[in-house]
């Protein structure tokens, strides 16, 4: 049987073109097909194989371009915690409007501290998000009426503090260990009963977590926390924001100062006759010629007297709510719709995970506040609300205050601070920042004594309160009605 031979021509790889020499993804593929099929057709021996070059360049170009376009979207922007400072003119419903800006965008406010002056308020808000979206939120806040200044101070060196009241179970057997932990964390005991202790702690958020973790083994009954407040750490030299403000109070800032110059400058500052430029102040307020200077940084926060003949007084409410976006906006909306002006507000995590505690001070009569509490109980996200006004309770506030001083006046300021048990947390060549905790009287007294030296900045938390298990009411121990 004669054999029909079919000789296959060896496949030769075509030379790649410069465009396809270095493709991004894939490679050119050459497929060889013989022209003679064994046993069927005879072709010349030197016949060449047909070549089919399948190039993936077009597919590669399309895919790489789509990948390049989607690269920025796959690389998500970094989410970080931001501290936003908002300085506003105080009016009814302002807290609700500010909280609504965050609620409409799905942001959950981690902490909120509101410190009120006579007619203005400073909000310190902590929220997590990307820088681009937070910038848009700040632009929306700036559009609100009576919002004077919005600033993100997260990236700058700052003094940050929180205040926490924590009530724990403390049997006499473990009380020595509890006191040892209190001393380590530089905390203070504010109330003692037979089976419980109420502790006051101040510090940064990391310290708060450490204290809570170490005291959890004894059993935590209740936690009331303020939001975080922050002030910039003052720079050294003439580039500092408050250099011009301090230089106006102390013309010889770099030289030696006579003993009586601080007193003289203080008198001119209090009387409003000083030529201090308000441009050095972070608060964008109107010139001091239009209104008294005390309206900007006055130590009085408009608290009502208990002896008001109309029955109007400040009521302290403690609320336990769900820790979810929009809850603060819903709660403050109840106050805003009824025309209540919130004098103080502190929001922080509660003793149970997933819950937050809101402590607020609202002026009103007993009857009107009782109706307000009934309306609050109708909210789905609210678990508990208590009016602590007629109960013996421990209350605390936290204040950071920056004073304009030079080397000669610094000793006097530190002596005043030691009397009030205030701590110096930041010092520059022309300012000093103090941290103070206590009740309203203590805040008012210290601020009034420091006004002659020149107050640069004030950041305050709201009031946090907790019922005294011991039943001791300090209002009757003082011998006068509270507050004054």
From TrEMBL:
Gene3D superfamilies: 3.30.70.260, ACT-like. Chain A, domain 2. Keywords: Amino-acid biosynthesis, Branched-chain amino acid biosynthesis. It comes from Actinidia chinensis var. chinensis (Chinese soft-hair kiwi). Pathway: Amino-acid biosynthesis; L-valine biosynthesis; L-valine from pyruvate: step 1/4; Amino-acid biosynthesis; L-isoleucine biosynthesis; L-isoleucine from 2-oxobutanoate: step 1/4. This is Acetolactate synthase small subunit 2 like. Pfam families: ACT_AHAS_ss, ALS_ss_C. Belongs to the acetolactate synthase small subunit family. PANTHER family: ACETOLACTATE SYNTHASE SMALL SUBUNIT, ACETOLACTATE SYNTHASE SMALL SUBUNIT 1, CHLOROPLASTIC.
